[in-house]
C-alpha cells in the first residue's frame, strides 16, 4: 500500500532498519516510503533531516506484520555490496576483523566456502572470527555436546579453506537468548581491542541482525550509542539487511575491562531466586524458547527498566498507522553523535545477508518460511522404521528405508511446527499426491494450484553402515527444512532413498551433528512407529545454580 512519486529525488538519509537510502520513487526498490508519508516527514521544518530515524515500508511491514515485500535485489548485487564494503581502504592502518555468523543447523554452511572468494586477494582482512549461532535450539544429546559442536564448526572452517593465520577463534552463541554473548564480547575486547573496524558477515537467516542488535545493547558498543543508533530489522525473511548499518565500538581500556569483569563476577554469584520479578519473567520466557540462555548486561550505563534484547517495533519513529500521525517534536529531540564521539571511532558494521543458493527457503512464501525456520528449542521426534517404510517431513522432504536386515531409528530435527508422517513405500506417492499443499503435510500450503508450480521431489540413493543402537551414523539434511539422524545396529548396512524439491541441496552429513539424538525420547507409542517426545531442561549461564540442574 502507498503510492510512489518518481519525480521526488532520493533523500540521502538511510533507513534505520535496513540501511537502504529512503526514497519514494520506486515501490519495488529498497528504501521505499509511500510518497505521502515521505513528504510529511521531509517537508517539515527540519527538511530531509526529518526522515532521520524513519524506516522504509518494507522494514515497517516486517516489524509489525512479519510481512515482506519481494524486492528486486539479486544475489550478485548482495555480494557486490558486501565485497565493496570489505575492499574499502584500511582505516587506522589496519584491515577489519570479520565476524562471520553461521546458523549451526545449516552446517556445513553453504556460504563458508565462498568466503575466501568474497574476501579476494585485495581485501586486507586482519582477522576472522567464526560464530556458530542458534546453539540454543539444539538439545544436549549427551554430556560434552557443546565441545562436539565446536569441533564440527572448526572442521567446517578447515574444510572451507579458512584454517590458519586469519582465523582467530570459533565460538558458539545464541544471539536471541544471549547465551555465549558475554564470552564473545570479552574475546573481542581481549584479542581485537579497538584496533580496527569489525564487519558482521553471514548468510541470510543466520541471525546476523539479531547479533548486531544484541551487541548494540552490550558492553561492546559506546555507552550512548544505543540511544542514537536504531536497531536493525530482525526477521526470518531472507536478506533483510540491505545496506550497511553500524555502531561505534567502545575502547576497552584497562579500567573498563576491570569494571566489566567485576560486574560479571558479581552476576555469577547471583541465583535465579535473587533476580527481580521482571528479570525472572524475561528469563522464563527465554527458557521456553531455547535450551541455553544467557544474559547480556551493561557495565557502563545505568540499566533502563527493560532488559529485553528483542526487536521492538515501538523503537521505530515511523508508523504506517491507519491514520499516520507525525510528531515533529519527537524528531527535534532525536539525539545525534557529537564530532568528538565519532572522529576516531572504530565501527561495527552489519552487512546484507548473503543469499543461499539451492535453498528450499527460496521456494517458500513468508508464511511458509515462518513455519519452517525453527524459533523455539527443537524437540527431537524419533521413529523406528522397518525396510519398506517411508518418513515424510511436511511435503519438503522424504526418506525411504529400502533395504536392511533390522529396524533402524530415524530422529527428526526440524521446526516443531512441521508435521512428520510415516507411510509405506506402496502408499507414499499417493499420500504426497493427495495431501501435498494441504493441512496434513502443511508446507507448502495453497492446494493443487501451489503444488503445480512447486518443484517435484527428486531422489538420491544413500548407503549407510550402522555404528550401534545409541549412536547415529549420519544426518540426512533435507536442504534448510531440517534433518533426519539415522541410527542403526553395528555393522548393519542400510539402503535409503532421500528426496528434496528439485533445485535444493540434499546433504549427507557424516559425522552427524548430534550423534546421540535418538536417546532423547520417551517410551514407544503402542501401535505406531513413534516414540513419545522428551524435552531436556534449559540451562542458564552466568547465574549460580542452586544445587538443582
From TrEMBL:
Transmembrane segments: none annotated. GO terms for molecular function: GTP binding. Residues 254-281 form a coiled coil. Keywords: Coiled coil. SUPFAM superfamilies: P-loop containing nucleoside triphosphate hydrolases. Residues 198-248 form the G domain. It comes from the Eukaryota. CDD domains: YqeH (cd01855). This is NOA1 protein. The lineage of its organism: Eukaryota, Metazoa, Chordata, Craniata, Vertebrata.
Amino acid at each position: 500500500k502507498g503510492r510512489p512519486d518518481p519525480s521526488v529525488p532520493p533523500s540521502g538519509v538511510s533507513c534505520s532498519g535496513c540501511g537502504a537510502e529512503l526514497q519514494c520513487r520506486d515501490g519495488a526498490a529498497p528504501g521505499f516510503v509511500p510518497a505521502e508519508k515521505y513528504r510529511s516527514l521531509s517537508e517539515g521544518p527540519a527538511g530531509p533531516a526529518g526522515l532521520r530515524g524513519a524506516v522504509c515500508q518494507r522494514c515497517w511491514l516486517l516489524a509489525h506484520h512479519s510481512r515482506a515485500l519481494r524486492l528486486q535485489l539479486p544475489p550478485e548485487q548482495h555480494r557486490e555490496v558486501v565485497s565493496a564494503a570489505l575492499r574499502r581502504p584500511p582505516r587506522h592502518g589496519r584491515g577489519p576483523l570479520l565476524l562471520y555468523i553461521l546458523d549451526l543447523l545449516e552446517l556445513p554452511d553453504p556460504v563458508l566456502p565462498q568466503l575466501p572468494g568474497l574476501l579476494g586477494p585485495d581485501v586486507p582482512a586482519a582477522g576472522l572470527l567464526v560464530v556458530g549461532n542458534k546453539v540454543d535450539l539444539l538439545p544436549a544429546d549427551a554430556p560434552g555436546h557443546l565441545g562436539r559442536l565446536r569441533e564440527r564448526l572448526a572442521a567446517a572452517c578447515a574444510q572451507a579453506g579458512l584454517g590458519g593465520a586469519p582465523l582467530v577463534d570459533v565460538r558458539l552463541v545464541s544471539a536471541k537468548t544471549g547465551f555465549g554473548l558475554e564470552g564473545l564480547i570479552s574475546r573481542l575486547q581481549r584479542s581485537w581491542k579497538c584496533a580496527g573496524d569489525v564487519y558482521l558477515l553471514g548468510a541470510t537467516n543466520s541471525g546476523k541482525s539479531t547479533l548486531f542488535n544484541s551487541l548494540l545493547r552490550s558492553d561492546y558498543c559506546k555507552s550512548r550509542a544505543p540511544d542514537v543508533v536504531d536497531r536493525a530489522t530482525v526477521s526470518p525473511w531472507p536478506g533483510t539487511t540491505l545496506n550497511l548499518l553500524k555502531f561505534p565500538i567502545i575502547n576497552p581500556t584497562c579500567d573498563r575491562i576491570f569494571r566489566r569483569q567485576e560486574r560479571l563476577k558479581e552476576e555469577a554469584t547471583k541465583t535465579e531466586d535473587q533476580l527481580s520479578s521482571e528479570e525472572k519473567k524475561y528469563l522464563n520466557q527465554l527458557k521456553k524458547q531455547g535450551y541455553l540462555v544467557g544474559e547480556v548486561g551493561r557495565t557502563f550505563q545505568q540499566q533502563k527498566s527493560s532488559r529485553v534484547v528483542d526487536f521492538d517495533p515501538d523503537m521505530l519513529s515511523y508508523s504506517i498507522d491507519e491514520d499516520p500521525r507525525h510528531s515533529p517534536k519527537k524528531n527535534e529531540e532525536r539525539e545525534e553523535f557529537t564530532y568528538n564521539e565519532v572522529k576516531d571511532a572504530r565501527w561495527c558494521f552489519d552487512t546484507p545477508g548473503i543469499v543461499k543458493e539451492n535453498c528450499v527457503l527460496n521456494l517458500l512464501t513468508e508464511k511458509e518460511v515462518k513455519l519452517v525456520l525453527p524459533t523455539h528449542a527443537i524437540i527431537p521426534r524419533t521413529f523406528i522404521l522397518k525396510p519398506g517404510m517411508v518418513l515424510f517431513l511436511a511435503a519438503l522432504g522424504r526418506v525411504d528405508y529400502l533395504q536392511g536386515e533390522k529396524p533402524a531409528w530415524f530422529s527428526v530435527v526440524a521446526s516443531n511446527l512441521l508435521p512428520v508422517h510415516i507411510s509405506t513405500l506402496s502408499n507414499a506417492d499417493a499420500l504426497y499426491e493427495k495431501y501435498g499443499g494441504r493441512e496434513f503435510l502443511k508446507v507448502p500450503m495453497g492446494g493443487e494450484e501451489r503444488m503445480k508450480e512447486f518443484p517435484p521431489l527428486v531422489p538420491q540413493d544413500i548407503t549407510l553402515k550402522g555404528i550401534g543402537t545409541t549412536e547415529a551414523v549420519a544426518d540426512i539434511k533435507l536442504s534448510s527444512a531440517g534433518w533426519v539422524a539415522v541410527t542403526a545396529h553395528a555393522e548393519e548396512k542400510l539402503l535409503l532413498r532421500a528426496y528434496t524439491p528439485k533445485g535444493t541441496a540434499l546433504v549427507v552429513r557424516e559425522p552427524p551433528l548430534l550423534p546421540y539424538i535418538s536417546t532423547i525420547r520417551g517410551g514407544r507409542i503402542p501401535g505406531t512407529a513413534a516414540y513419545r517426545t522428551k524435552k531436556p531442561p534449559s540451562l542458564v549461564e552466568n547465574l549460580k545454580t542452586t544445587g538443582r540442574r
